[in-house]
Design goal:
Layout: H1 12-26, E1 43-47, H2 59-77, E2 81-85, E3 87-88, H3 92-105, H4 115-139, E4 150-151, H5 155-170, E5 174-184, E6 189-191, E7 196-210, E8 213-217, E9 228-231, E10 246-251, E11 254-262, E12 274-276, H6 283-291, H7 318-331, E13 335-349, E14 357-366, H8 369-380, E15 385-387, H9 389-400, E16 405-406, E17 408-409, E18 419-422, E19 428-430, E20 447-449, E21 453-454, H10 456-460, H11 463-467, H12 474-479, E22 482-488, H13 492-507, E23 512-518, E24 521-522, H14 539-546, H15 548-556, E25 565-566, H16 569-592, H17 604-625, H18 629-658, H19 661-682, H20 687-694
Parallel strand pairs: 1-2, 3-4, 9-11, 15-23, 22-23, 24-25
Antiparallel strand pairs: 5-6, 5-14, 7-8, 7-13, 9-12, 10-11, 14-16, 17-21, 18-19, 18-20
Helix pairs in contact: 1-20, 2-15, 8-13, 14-15, 15-16, 16-18, 17-18, 17-19, 18-19, 19-20
The protein binds one RNA strand through strand 8, strand 12, helix 6, helix 9 and strand 25.
RNA sequence: GCACCCUUAGCUCAGUUGGUAGAGCACACCCUUCACACGGGUGGGGUCAUAGGUUCGAGUCCUAUAGGGUGCACCA
C-alpha cells in the first residue's frame, strides 16, 4: 500500500535528478507546450539575468534561481503562459580578467598574444563554463525554457546591439570624443564611472613654493608640466594677480613661465586656494583647461610611467618617482611643508584595486540625460514599479545626476564596436555594413576598424528585447514588456537602469513592469563571501548535502527584498528536516488512508479545518502576488509542522480508532485535501519533495501527472 | 558634499496596510509511546537603540539624538 521509499527518511540526492529530467522532458518549461487547461491567457515572463559563463554558480545565483523559479512555478500553476528565458553572459571585462589570471598562472600574458588567438581561447573557456553552468541551473531546479536559451554573443543579440548603436548615432546621442577616462594601468582599458570604486587613504599632502604662490598637492608626480596656476576670482588673498598674468619662476626641472588663471572651480577653503593644473590627468583640470582653451600634455604613459617631459625622472614608475622628486624639490628649497595626515578618497579599478590613472583618450560616449529623463518619467508614471521604495529612491538619485557613459573598452573579449576610425583626421564613424569602403567621409583619409569592444553592460542593457527577438518575432509581440526583472540590488545602475533606458529608447516601451531586487548573500557571520577569505558557501555542495529544496527554503525564509542576508548552513539543515517532516506526513497518510471519498460531507470541526486551509491558501497567494515569498514560505512551514502535523494528525488518530464512519470519512477527506493543497502551495518553494510525494497520492486528488502543472488552489 | 538604510530573544534575522512580539540556531529538563530521534513534550530569555510627538492603541507613522552601515559624486 505504502510505497517502499516512504519507509526510509527522505533522500534528496536519490530523488531530485530524475524529477528534473521528468519535468524537462515533459516540455512544460516551454509556455507554448503547456496543457490546455490554461485559464489565464496573459503571459507571465521573466528574463533570467544571464549568469557569467566564467565559473561556478555562487550563492547569489542560487538565490536568484530560487526567487525566479518560485515566481514562475506560481504563475504556471495559476494557468499563466509562464516563460522564463535563460541565458549566459560572455561578461566581457569580468571574464577577460578571470582569463588573464589563468594566463598569469601559466606564465603568459595577453599583451604578448595575437588578439584573435586570445579571443578564441577565451571563447573556448567560456563555452565550457557555459555548459557546466547550465547543469548547475538544472540542479537548482530552474524550470526555465531551455529551447529559448540565448548567449550574449549570439548573432541575433549582436545585430540588435548594432542597431541600437546606429540609432544612437543617428539621433545625436552618440559621440566620439577625447575626454578624461578612467584608465586602469594594469588592465589597459578605460572603465565607466561605475567600474571604479573609491578607497579612503591617508597619504602625505605636499605644499610647494611655486613662484609667489604655495600650492598643495597629493600627486607631485603629475606636476612636471604644470604651467598654469589657478585661483578663485573672488579670492581676495590673490586679488593682486590677474588672469593671463605671466610669472617667471623656478620649478622642478628649471625655470618656467607660468600663467595665472581665475576659475570658479577652485575651492578657496581647500589647501592654499591655489593650484596648478594637469589637464591630461585630472577631470577638474581638464574642465578648467577646456574653459580657458589651454594645451593638454600627457605626463604619464598608459602603463603608469613618466614620459620625457619629466626630464631625469622619465621612464620611472610614478610611485617610485614621487619620493625622489619631493626630495629634489626639497633640495631646491621649494618644499614648504608636508601634511602627513591627509585623508582622501582614491578611485581604484573595481577588479584589481590599482589606482585609476585619469587619461585623455578618444572613446565612444552615450549622452545619457535624455534617456534618463524618459526612464524617470516611466518609473514615476508607474510603468515600472521598483521594489523596494528604498531602491526607488536610490534609482532616482542616480538618474537625476547621470553622467555620459563611456562604452568603449580596450579588450578583445566582447562585441566589436562597429565603427571605423580615420588615421588622418582622427574621426570616428559608425559603419556597420562597410558602407564607407575604407574612405573617411570627412577628410578622405584611410579608415581602419575600431579595435575596441563594447562595455558588456551596453549589450546587457538591451537583453530583454534582444532575447525576445525585437522587433518582429512573435515572442517579442507576446512577451514584451516582461512581467518582472528579478536581479541583484548591486547592479541597479549597471544593468536595471540601463535596461529601462535602452528598452524605452529602442522599443518605445519599458522592458519590464516590476523590478524585484535581492541583496547580497553573505556568510553566517555577515561577511561578504570571497575565495581569499575561504568563506564561500557553494550552493551546489549545499544542495548535495541537504537537498535543493532545503537550500531554497534557507535562502528564502526571512530574506526580504533589497536587503542582504546571512546564510547559515545550519538554517538549511533545519529545512532538510522539514522536507523529511513532510515526507513522514505523507507516510502517515498513505498508511492510514487507503481510500477516500472526496464527496464525503465534512463534520462541523472538519469544515472549520478546511476553511483554515483555504485561508492559508489565500494568504500565500496574496503574499506571492505581492512579492513576499519570505512570508509565504514561513507560513507554509508553520502550517504543515505546527498545525497539520502536530494538531490535525494527532487528533485524527483517535478518530480513526473510535470515530463513526461519517467522522472517519470526513476526516480522511479533510486530511488528504488539505495535504494536497499544502503540497501545491509549497511546490514553488520546494519543488522536488512536493512533486515526489504528489505522484504517490491517490489519483482522485490529481488532475495532472505532474504537480508542476497542477491547478493552484486559489484561482481568481 | 548629495542620497539612502539599519539598531527587535545569547547569535543571525522576520514582523505585509498601526491592534497586547516570531523563526532558525543556541540553552535547561524530560521522553526511544505504533508518521517522523532529520522526532515529541515542557521551560528560560526581549520596557522592539534613546527622547519626545500623533493615536483609543505604535516594533509598525512623525521629529530629534546616539551608534553602525551603504550608494553616488568630488578637493587639487
Amino acid at each position: 500500500m505504502v510505497p517502499e521509499k516512504f519507509l526510509k527518511p527522505y533522500d534528496p540526492a536519490a530523488t531530485e535528478p530524475s524529477l528534473y529530467t521528468q519535468w524537462e522532458q515533459s516540455g512544460f518549461f516551454n509556455p507554448d507546450k503547456l496543457p490546455d487547461q490554461i485559464e489565464r491567457t496573459e503571459p507571465f515572463t521573466i528574463i533570467m539575468p544571464p549568469p557569467n559563463a566564467n565559473g561556478s554558480l555562487h550563492a547569489g545565483h542560487a538565490l536568484f534561481v530560487t526567487l525566479q523559479d518560485i515566481m514562475i512555478r506560481f504563475a504556471r500553476m495559476r494557468g499563466n503562459k509562464a516563460l522564463w528565458l535563460p541565458g549566459a553572459d560572455h561578461a566581457g571585462f569580468e571574464t577577460q580578467v578571470v582569463y588573464e589570471k589563468k594566463l598569469e598562472k601559466e606564465g603568459r600574458s595577453r599583451f604578448e598574444m595575437e588578439p584573435r588567438q586570445l579571443y578564441n581561447e577565451i571563447l573556448e573557456f567560456t563555452l565550457a563554463n557555459k555548459s557546466f553552468m547550465e547543469g548547475q541551473l538544472r540542479q537548482l531546479g530552474a524550470s526555465c525554457d531551455w529551447s529559448r536559451e540565448l548567449f550574449t554573443l549570439d548573432e541575433r543579440v549582436i545585430k540588435t546591439v548594432y542597431g541600437t548603436f546606429k540609432k544612437l548615432g543617428e539621433d545625436g546621442l552618440l559621440y566620439r570624443g577625447k575626454r578624461i577616462v578612467n584608465w586602469c594601468p594594469k588592465h589597459q582599458t578605460s572603465l565607466s564611472n561605475l567600474e571604479t570604486i573609491y578607497q579612503t587613504r591617508t597619504e602625505p599632502f605636499y605644499y610647494f613654493q611655486y613662484g609667489p604662490f604655495v600650492i598643495g598637492t597629493s600627486r607631485p608626480e603629475t606636476k612636471f608640466g604644470d604651467k598654469y596656476v589657478v585661483m578663485h576670482p573672488d579670492d581676495e588673498r590673490y586679488a593682486q594677480y590677474s588672469e593671463g598674468q605671466k610669472i617667471d619662476l623656478e620649478w622642478i626641472n628649471g625655470p618656467i613661465t607660468a600663467t595665472v588663471l581665475k576659475d570658479e572651480a577652485i575651492d578657496m577653503s581647500f589647501g592654499t586656494g591655489v593650484m596648478t593644473i594637469t589637464p591630461w590627468h585630472d577631470a577638474t583640470d581638464f574642465e578648467i583647461a577646456k574653459r580657458h582653451t589651454l594645451d593638454y600634455e600627457q605626463i604619464i604613459d598608459w602603463r603608469g610611467k613618466l614620459l620625457p617631459v619629466a626630464g631625469e625622472f622619465a621612464g620611472m614608475n610614478i610611485k617610485e618617482a614621487r619620493p625622489k622628486m619631493v626630495e629634489k624639490l626639497k633640495e631646491k628649497g621649494l618644499l614648504v611643508k608636508i601634511d602627513e595626515k591627509y585623508t582622501h578618497e582614491v578611485p581604484v579599478c573595481y577588479k584589481c584595486e590599482r589606482e585609476i590613472e585619469p587619461q585623455i583618450k578618444a572613446q565612444w560616449f552615450v549622452t545619457m540625460e535624455p534617456l534618463a529623463k524618459k526612464a524617470l518619467a516611466a518609473v514615476d508614471a508607474g510603468d515600472v514599479r521598483i521594489l523596494t521604495e528604498n531602491h526607488n529612491k536610490i534609482f532616482h538619485n542616480w538618474l537625476e545626476n547621470i553622467q555620459d557613459w563611456n562604452i568603449s573598452r580596450q579588450i578583445v573579449w566582447g562585441i566589436p564596436i562597429p565603427a571605423k576610425l580615420c588615421s588622418k583626421c582622427d574621426g570616428g564613424f559608425v559603419d556597420i555594413d562597410d558602407t564607407m569602403h575604407g574612405v573617411c567621409p570627412k577628410c578622405g583619409g584611410k579608415l581602419v576598424q575600431d579595435p575596441d569592444t563594447f562595455d558588456t553592460w551596453f549589450s546587457s542593457g538591451q537583453w530583454p528585447f534582444a532575447t525576445l527577438g525585437y522587433p518582429d518575432s512573435p515572442d517579442f509581440k507576446e512577451f514584451y514588456p516582461t512581467s518582472v526583472m528579478e536581479t541583484a540590488a548591486d547592479i541597479l545602475f549597471f544593468w536595471v537602469a540601463r535596461m529601462i533606458m535602452l528598452g524605452l529608447y529602442r522599443t518605445g516601451d519599458v522592458p519590464f513592469r516590476n523590478v524585484y531586487l535581492h541583496g547580497i548573500v553573505r556568510d553566517a557571520k555577515g561577511r561578504k563571501m570571497s575565495k581569499s577569505k575561504g568563506n564561500v558557501i557553494s550552493p551546489l555542495e549545499v544542495s548535495n548535502e541537504y537537498g535543493t529544496d532545503a537550500l531554497r527554503m534557507g535562502l528564502i525564509v526571512g530574506n526580504t527584498a533589497g536587503t542582504d542576508m546571512n546564510l547559515d548552513p545550519r538554517k538549511i539543515g533545519a529545512y532538510k528536516k522539514f522536507a523529511n517532516k513532510i515526507w513522514n506526513i505523507a507516510r502517515f497518510l498513505l498508511e492510514n488512508i487507503d481510500e477516500i471519498d472526496i464527496t464525503a460531507p465534512f463534520t462541523a470541526t472538519d469544515s472549520e479545518r478546511r476553511a483554515q486551509m483555504q485561508a492559508i491558501a489565500q494568504d500565500v497567494t496574496d503574499d506571492l502576488e505581492n512579492y513576499r515569498p519570505y512570508l509565504a514560505a514561513e507560513k507554509l512551514y508553520h502550517y504543515l509542522w505546527d498545525v497539520f502535523a502536530s494538531d490535525l494528525l494527532e487528533e485524527s488518530k483517535p478518530i480513526f480508532k473510535t470515530g463513526t464512519p461519517e467522522e472517519v470519512a470526513s476526516r480522511k477527506r479533510l486530511l488528504m485535501q488539505n495535504f494536497a493543497d499544502s503540497l501545491k502551495l509549497l511546490h514553488p518553494f520546494m519543488p522536488f519533495v512536493t512533486e515526489e510525494i504528489w505522484q504517490s497520492l491517490p489519483a482522485v486528488l490529481r488532475t495532472q501527472d505532474m504537480l508542476m502543472v497542477e491547478r493552484w488552489p486559489i484561482v481568481k
